[in-house]
Amino acid sequence: MISLALTQFGVPLGKWCAEGLARPKIISRGPAEGIETLSALPKLAAKILITVVIGGFLGATLVRIAPGFGVDEEELDARLSSQSIQALRETGANETNLLAFYVQYLNRLLHGDLGNSRTLHRPVLQLVAERLPETLKSVALGLALGWSAGFLLAVAIVMSRAWLLDLVGSLLVGVLLCLPAAVLALLFVLAQAPARLLLGLVVFPKIFRYSRNLLARSSALPHVLTARAKGLGNMRVLVWHILPTAAPQLLALLGVTVSVAFTAAIPMEALCDIPGIGQLAWKAALGRDVALLVNLTMIVTLVTLVANSASDVVGRTFRASEA
Amino acid sequence: MKWARTTAIVFLLAVCAACLLANVIAPASYAHQFREEPNASPSRQHLLGTDDLGRDRFSRVLYGTRVSLLLAPAAALLTSLLAAFVGGIAGFAGGWVERFVMAGTDLFLSLPWLFLLITVRALLPLNVSPIVSVLITFAMLGCLGWAGAARIICADARAVAQSDFILLARASGSNGFRLLWRHLVPNLKPVLFAQFWISVPVFILTEANLGILGLGVAEPLPSWGSLLRELESFSTASAQPWQLVPLILFILVVSSFHLVLTKEELTV
Asked: Nearest 10 degrees: CA dihedral of A113, A114, A115, A120?
């Protein structure tokens, strides 16, 4: 059972030999896995592309199922004549054929045209090009902050085994997990705190909780206990025996946190007035701008998939190099 | 941590009882405006003061809690049922059915659900009533949240389907439906229950996010989202700490769900 678990974690064999510790049985696939990983990259890219295309189709389908699809706020304008309202409805009716709409959309996409925003009266590509860097900056900063704080606190708690620190950390994380990102954004606005740090606070509790559990489980493995019993220092045990065991799963968490950060970017940017794609999505939602929303959904899906796949590839490469 | 779990359950029961009895306890309707008393301080008549429009805040907290606490579990139930159906069938059937269904589930998981949610929410009819808006909001949450739970249930269903007692049941002549209903479903109950408990606070948090963004339950019906939105005007309220009561109640309720949930997770 233990060897199976260790195989999944990709425990470094060489380190055990160097420390003269009991070496668990590990079935390793060796460096060939690294080569396999690289050769699988085109397949992975194709998979991502197909997923995004099908995901976009699903998104467009859901939009059409929505009971208010095709209804325009302009129809409520009392100044419009019945002919004008009919003309507005006919404009929307062209988009009701889902398959025809999506084929046309993909065709335009291949030519680098994402269409025009109905509310902002500008090309979607231009809007995304302007705003995506802002969101990427916020997400990168948030992830760096959340990972540093969450991971370091988890390491400190697991290695020191200080119950007070554990209690304080757990309480802090418990409160943060109960606060919606939008409330945190409002509190940041009230406190006039730098809004970009907010994403760090959103991902911090998730990273802390997962890392602490993972590191605690790794530190209870027999080879770590043996290493401690043989008098190895805390830092050596952490770097050579606990972290390599936990690394693949932590890398997998990295991909997940990218998705969490992008999701939290909507309330952050909307409420803290940061001109990113989260704010764009919010404005598009309020203005019922379907073209913009579907495009943004596809872009975020693509970013999420790339992040998840990248963390997966890095994890596999790490396991291969450790083996 | 048994005491913490017990306290959380008692607290949740008390909050549920209070909001179910809102018609009796609340001093006014959630929509009634005391026009001569906007932004009033707490008094005997208005325990938590009034909001910008002169509506009794205590009444709105009670009714808003009722909306969120009744409909989030309903959405969680819908999610759990969908996940049980999709994951259970996939895990029980195995083979290409499982691969096909799980590929679909992975595809669904890769979609940014909050983007999707605001997209669909934004396209509700313009003349939708508050009651319909709240039902649609939570129904959407329920319909979009099944994928993660389905993966877990599929793994569990697969393990049960491959167990010895199912083999014995097959050998005794049990057919597919009987196996599914009499043997598989009862063994999936603990994981379904855990998934249900996991989903409830997630949906409460999501509704709050949507509500604060103005995409949740339509006014004048209160929900936690619309109540927390009042924090936008908190800058004037450094001397009005009672405005924070909905936030404190929200944190207490969600953390109580987490405390109950942790124990449930451990028992699965």
From this structure: -130
The whole-number average pLDDT for the span A291-305 is 84
pLDDT band at B265 (very low <50, low <70, confident <90, very high): low
- Residues on B contacting A at a C-beta cutoff of 8 Å: 106-108, 110-116, 118-126, 128, 136, 201, 205-206, 208-209, 212-215, 228, 231-232, 234-235, 247, 250-251, 254-255, 258
**Selected residue of B12, B113, B115 to mutate for chain A interface (largest A Cβ count, 10 A):** B115
Alpha carbon separation from B139 to B67, B142, B145, B197 (Å, rounded): 13, 5, 10, 17
DSSP annotation string for B61-128? HHHHHHHHHHHHHHHHHHHHHHHHHHHHHHHHH-HHHHHHHHHHHHHHHHS-HHHHHHHHHHTS-TT-
Residue B159 CB partners (closer than 8 Å, separation 6+): B91
Q: How far apart are CA A94 and CA A100, in angstroms?
A: 9
Euclidean distance between CA atoms A38 and A300, whole angstroms: 25
Q: pLDDT tens digits for B157-195?
A: 888 888 888 888 888 888 777 888 888 888 888 888 888
Reported as type and span, the H/E element at residue A296 is helix A290-322
d(Cα A215, Cα B81) in Å, to the nearest integer?
34
Task: Rank A213-222, B32-41, B133-142 by mean pLDDT and report only the highest.
Answer: A213-222
Q: Is the pLDDT of residue B127 over 90?
A: no
Whole-number pLDDT of residue A200? 92
Residues of B in contact with A71 (CB under 8 A): 125-126
- A191, A201, A250, A265: which is closest to B209 by C-alpha? A265
How many angstroms separate the CA atoms of A107 and A319, rounded? 41
- Report, as an integer, the average pLDDT of B103-116: 80
Q: What amino acid is encoded at B101 in this protein?
A: V
Looking at residues A31-58, what average pLDDT do you find? 72
Alpha helices by DSSP H, listed for B111-241, are 113-122, 130-144, 146-161, 164-171, 176-178, 185-212, 224-229
Interface test with B, best of A262, A288, A297 (most B CBs within 10 A): A297
pTM over 0.90: no
Reported as half-sphere exposure (CB side, CA atoms, 13 A), residue B105 has a value of 27
CA-based nearest residue in chain B for residue A75: B126
Tens digits of residue pLDDT in A187-240? 888 888 888 889 999 999 999 999 998 999 888 889 888 988 888 888 888 888
Beta bridge pairs of residue B50: B56
Distance CA B68, CA B20 (A): 12
CA distances from residue B104 to A41, A58, B108, B140, B223 in whole angstroms, order as listed: 22, 11, 6, 18, 33
